[in-house]
Amino acid sequence: MRLNTAAVAALAAFAAPAPALAAARPNIIVVLTDDQDAQMNSIDYMPLLQKHLVDQGTTFTKHYCTIAICCPSRVNLWTGQLAHNTNVTDVSPPYGGYPKFVTEGYSDRHLAVWMQESGYNTYYVGKLFNHHSLSNYDKPHVRGFTGSDFLLDPTTYQYWNFSTTHNGAPPVNYDGVYSPDFTAERVYEFLDEAAEDSEKPFFLVAAPIAPHGNFQLSPKLEAGPPQVAPRHQHLFNDYEIPRTPNFNPETPSGVDWIARLPRLDDTVLAYNDEFQRQRLRSLQAVDEMVEGVVARLEASGQLDNTYIFYTADNGYHISQHRLNPGKECSFETDINVPLLVRGPGVPAGLVKDSVVSSHTDLAPTIMHLAGNPLRADFDGQPIAVHDASNTGPEHVGTEFWGHAFPEGKYGSYVAAAGHLEAYYGLSPADYQADTQMARPAPVNNTYKGLRVVGAEYNLYYAVWCTNDRQLYDMRKDPFQVDNLLDSKKMTATAGPASTLLGRDLATVADRLDALILIMKSCKGNACVEPWRRIHPHGDVHSLSAALAPKYDAFYAQQPKVSFTSCKPGYLREVEGPQHAHVFSGGALDTMREQMHMVDPNWSLWT
């Protein structure tokens, strides 16, 4: 892709050294949990995290994963590229997992490699990617790390019986050891090792499996709640999942298969409450690890020159929208994840609730803080972690392909069997259907989504592979129970007669659809400045500017986001139009529009 001069200038500005850097290059630590929710306020139940990161750093309340499933989200995070560009879109082959990461050429193109090449010691402990296993951990060995201890499939999600490879050595099994505690101990060892090399800064990732469910394959497949260290088992006995408007609602919410879900009965709700209690209990070991990390940094004199990031690969739902435990959906529960940042120059005790950021931005942010130049193929930009203002980017795109897998004993493994068979290498005979698993797993959960947050609006818009559409005004409907584009409601009112942001609903939806049209296949700076792909003169940088009445006819004629079929991975040919029309403002722009009439896929920007 060719970048315009403004894009090149922006990249050059981002590549400049961070103003708050100390004389010595900073250390950087990332704590990456697995499936930790933000919408159910899980960090409120982590007092040590509150003490050391919330109170001493900045909380970003509108931080998102761009794809709500483990492996693709982690690849997005460590490469700074969206899933439609990495082409790692699932947890297992052929569309995802560690083998896909390797075949797509990312073994030598990820954050740890770049940090190591720039002079950092690099360490990783815990879960890296799905399908990184006992049989392929050395095909090839993960590159870019000075020291590592990776959890390996098929025991990654077993809390008391797991295997790891230490610095690439043959795997060792640990039976009767609690996995999050093991992760913490290895992290402390690598911190000690890093402190001994005073000539080099370090980059360290701590990736415990908590609060992911405990998955066991033998003698029977089980995907239940996480298991807990005995010292934490007594906690939170009175906890209940917040009974928000989207909690097991009387009226179905969402579209497609979600709209057809029956209400959960009292037995299931009680089970789900305990499931979430176990999730909170499992996080207590992570909470203790955070304090252990801070204590060791303080003891070695490195705390004041270390950035600590705390986040999760994806969010989680449990009873919201009538859903059994799981992720992968387009709701805020699944895509909104914690992001806490502490470090030199980062404001303490600050909450940023109007700045939109995503996992695509984390690799650029870490590279920037380390004083490294940014890559032209980054799809994100550095997060302004030193800025105390509450303004920033207003959009983030989300995407998903394939199945949504329900967890817990009231989910269904039967319909998901093909998906799990590919992941675990099991035969259909290995699946034992519980008599209480009455609801089938959804056949397909593919969608393109968009979060837009500005001074005047807080919106979510999505288009599914079934061509169903969702639009939520989250200022009035923060729990996403009233889809403004519900086809039944629109039929009853003879069309989208309601208004939003002072304009009729269709007018607003036209703009959002055009923005997704750019975001769903964007690369590089197009993902950062999507409006410029439609308005190249630079006079539109936000939804509010795009809503000017003079653009109404133009947006009404834009190609619409659509799918010809639902597929389990990223197959561009079924994902409809790929390019938006460019707004005319002169002879060149008239030529652009004429070219689009001849070839809708023509673009000046490719």
TrEMBL record:
<keyword id="KW-0732">Signal</keyword>
<comment type="similarity">
    <text>Belongs to the sulfatase family.</text>
</comment>
<dbReference type="GO" id="GO:0004065">
    <property type="term" value="F:arylsulfatase activity"/>
</dbReference>
<dbReference type="GO" id="GO:0008449">
    <property type="term" value="F:N-acetylglucosamine-6-sulfatase activity"/>
</dbReference>
<dbReference type="InterPro" id="IPR012083">
    <property type="entry name" value="Arylsulfatase"/>
</dbReference>
<dbReference type="InterPro" id="IPR017850">
    <property type="entry name" value="Alkaline_phosphatase_core_sf"/>
</dbReference>
<protein>
    <recommendedName>
        <fullName>Arylsulfatase</fullName>
        <ecNumber>3.1.6.1</ecNumber>
    </recommendedName>
</protein>
<dbReference type="InterPro" id="IPR000917">
    <property type="entry name" value="Sulfatase_N"/>
</dbReference>
<feature type="domain" description="Sulfatase N-terminal">
    <location>
        <begin position="26"/>
        <end position="371"/>
    </location>
</feature>
<keyword id="KW-0325">Glycoprotein</keyword>
<dbReference type="GO" id="GO:0005539">
    <property type="term" value="F:glycosaminoglycan binding"/>
</dbReference>
<keyword id="KW-0378">Hydrolase</keyword>
<feature type="signal peptide">
    <location>
        <begin position="1"/>
        <end position="22"/>
    </location>
</feature>
<dbReference type="Pfam" id="PF00884">
    <property type="entry name" value="Sulfatase"/>
</dbReference>
<dbReference type="GO" id="GO:0018958">
    <property type="term" value="P:phenol-containing compound metabolic process"/>
</dbReference>
<feature type="modified residue" description="3-oxoalanine (Cys)">
    <location>
        <position position="70"/>
    </location>
</feature>
<dbReference type="InterPro" id="IPR024607">
    <property type="entry name" value="Sulfatase_CS"/>
</dbReference>
